[in-house]
Design a protein that fits this description.
Layout: H1 3-14, H2 17-21, E1 30-31, E2 34-35, E3 37-38, H3 49-61, H4 72-92, E4 100-103, H5 106-117, E5 126-130, H6 139-148, E6 151-155, H7 165-171, E7 176-182, H8 194-203, E8 207-211, H9 223-226, E9 230-234, E10 245-249, H10 251-256, E11 267-271, E12 274-277, H11 291-305, H12 309-326, E13 333-336, E14 345-350, H13 355-363, E15 367-368, E16 370-372, H14 377-383, E17 388-392, H15 399-416
Parallel strand pairs: 3-15, 5-6, 5-7, 7-8, 8-9
Antiparallel strand pairs: 1-2, 4-10, 9-10, 11-12, 13-14, 14-17, 16-17
């Protein structure tokens, strides 16, 4: 029996990926005459039928605007919408639904926080990020720094793709006002020691934001245990719909922050003499919200709650371990990011091949990966590469698909060799 067969048998006793795949209609199709092997989950994960059905049911049976409708459909829609908020609260272990703000996604959530904290920043203050951040956790802070005179300061990373904790410790100072750090790197898959970092920051009175976009598909965070001030993520990476995300914020800080947008739900009373704001969380939810999308996100979390999360994580680790074993079968292939603690993300390069060529040729074999700078140009600059190819796995991927990826990469390498 091969190594792959042993790992496959052991894993599937605890977690049946083939059965899970039947819950995801899109995975059964063919692409370019080949069965689809979807390995672009870090960019956007696929949706189970439970999510599609929940959104369809909302539109067919209860669509109405929420909160102030004086009729049955409005009541149904509001119950589903606020029920989804409670589902998110429980998922994050937030203390109250007042701390769960709907946004368009991670990017808007970070922009909301950055703009809200601008009033606390002045010339000479420092905002700590890292070299492995997604642009969405760099650019908003740069924009706020330009307005306030603050400075964005990057924490270094090691060649292995881990945060340089000596760099972090040396940068913490009485000038540091905000620590905004990714929980998991979208390029490297590195799981950062955010609990320790938050603890050190809190001891100095530093406000903390964690970008959980790449973390939540692989494990469940506990914002109270992490003790962070803000935690953000996107639905579409968590097997839910696009167009909606979540900002968790500590209530005391949210109360201090000004509204991000004006109009609709975020008001209490409007006169031409002035306007007063609604209570949390509605203070930050101007206009008609993404109701169906919230329902879909709630359904995605309910779906995940029905799985054995420990077995799921074990299965994903098996995928990454097998991929690491097979790297040596492709001449000239090397991995970018070899941290000890990772989610199943593999960024790589093959000597003499451009990442976009790798992606195109894999697509011809039915395999979907991501290529380019992955919205992390400073990290690409650190490694001295214009971009990488990236295979990002989810719990519905199989060890057979890992084998297919490397068989296809061998073909690509032979073609160019």
């Amino acid at each position: 029996m091969s190594d792959m067969s042993v790992a496959s048998t052991a894993t599937r006793k605890a977690f049946d990926a083939q059965a899970i795949r039947r819950d995801f209609p899109i995975l059964s199709q063919q692409v370019n005459g080949k069965p689809l092997v979807y390995l672009d989950n870090g960019a956007s994960a696929q949706k189970p039928a439970a999510v599609l059905d929940a959104m369809d049911r909302y539109y067919r049976e209860m669509h109405s605007n929420v909160h102030r409708g004086a009729h049955t459909l409005g009541d149904r829609a509001t119950a589903a919408f606020e029920g989804a908020r409670e589902t998110v609260r429980s998922f994050l272990n937030a203390s109250s639904t007042q701390e769960v703000i709907w946004t368009k996604g991670t990017t808007e959530a970070i922009n909301l926080v950055a703009n809200g904290l601008a009033q606390k920043l002045k010339a000479g203050d420092e905002i700590l990020v890292s070299h492995m951040e997604h642009h969405a956790n760099i650019v908003p802070w740069q924009m706020v720094a330009e307005r306030t005179g603050a400075k964005v300061v990057p924490i270094l990373v090691t060649p292995e793709g881990e945060l340089d904790m000596e760099s972090f410790n040396s940068l913490l100072s009485n000038r540091t006002r905000v620590l905004a750090i990714t929980h998991v790197s979208n390029v490297l898959g590195t799981i950062n020691p955010v609990a320790d970092m938050v603890s050190q920051a809190k001891a100095r009175g530093i406000i903390t934001l964690l970008d959980g976009a790449q973390a939540v598909p692989h494990f469940q965070p506990d914002v109270q245990a992490l003790d962070c001030d803000f935690y953000v993520f996107s639905s579409h990476k968590l097997f839910g719909p696009t167009g909606i995300g979540v900002l968790y914020g500590r209530a005391a800080l949210l109360e201090e922050m000004p509204p991000y947008q004006g109009g609709g739900e975020m008001i209490e009373r409007v006169t031409f003499e002035g306007t007063t704001w609604n209570t949390l969380p509605y203070k930050f939810e101007a206009g008609t919200p993404a109701i169906a999308e919230a329902v879909g996100l709630g359904a995605a979390i309910d779906y995940l709650n029905g799985l054995d999360r420990a077995a799921m994580e074990s299965a994903e680790n098996a995928l990454l371990n097998r991929a690491n074993q097979l790297v040596e079968t492709v001449p000239g292939m090397s991995i970018i990011g070899t941290a000890k603690h990772k989610v199943p993300v593999m960024s790589f390069k093959i000597e003499g091949l451009h990442p976009s060529d790798i992606g195109t040729l894999l697509d011809q074999q039915g395999i979907a990966i991501r290529t380019g700078h992955h919205c992390a140009m400073p990290l690409m600059d650190f490694y001295g590469v214009p971009g990488t190819a990236r295979a990002s796995f989810a719990f519905y991927n199989t060890l057979d698909e890992v084998e297919q990826l490397f068989t296809a990469l061998q073909k690509v390498q032979r073609l160019f060799a």
